[in-house]
Amino acid sequence: MPAGNPPIPAKMSVVLTEDRVDKLIPFSTLVSGAVAMGFEVHVFASVWGLNAFRKTSPSPHPPVGPGHGEEGARLERTLADRKVPSWKSMLSAAKGIGALHVYACSQSMELFHLTPADLDPIVDEVVGIATFIDRARHAEASYFV
Amino acid sequence: MVVDARGSWCPGPLMELVRVIQEEEVGTEFELLSSDEGSRKDIPLWIDKAGHQLLRIQNEPGFDRFIIRKSHS
Fold first, then answer.
1. Known catalytic membership, residue B71
2. Count of domains in chain A?
3. Which value does ipTM take for this structure?
4. A144, containing H or E segment
5. Cα A15–A20–A22 angle (5° rounding)?
6. Domain range for residue A91?
């Protein structure tokens, strides 16, 4: 590898708008898997997605979203009984092995009257959408959860 | 060295592998144990992309044993 010419990592962007466990587990699986595969991952947490990163959000597992009836209740019990790692611990593990950037949507911060001190430290910074678009530029894959 | 990721959920075993490979010296051989079905394709795929060596896979009752060598830093 020529000096001064480091390889450009593949990039992925994810917009998170949900705070229920049946969305957060697939989200954290996608993100941590991508980081393990060497992707630089950029996450933008907006509205309920930002809500999920509040220090007061249910831990380790928030409830399943509505409309899943008995199957949803069974999923919640399985997550608890089998000690499935929390979505946040998966993100922490991803940060430990690679490049994961988590941004809080500045508009949602205002909607919920939040300050950075209200958020889990896994959130790196509060940004506007233009900054996220710029950071996520040239992403090979972009997801909306 | 044995990295026992049995009972860990996808992509837990892969995350463990990436973490351990980062920490170990070049040339280190170790075993990764995984009971996750997805590991059978995910682990060889990652090792190939990352340029390390998968020496062999042993199918054991209820889990797989991946024998791996770290090939470069």
1. no
2. 1
3. 0.86
4. strand A141-144
5. 90
6. 12-116+131-136
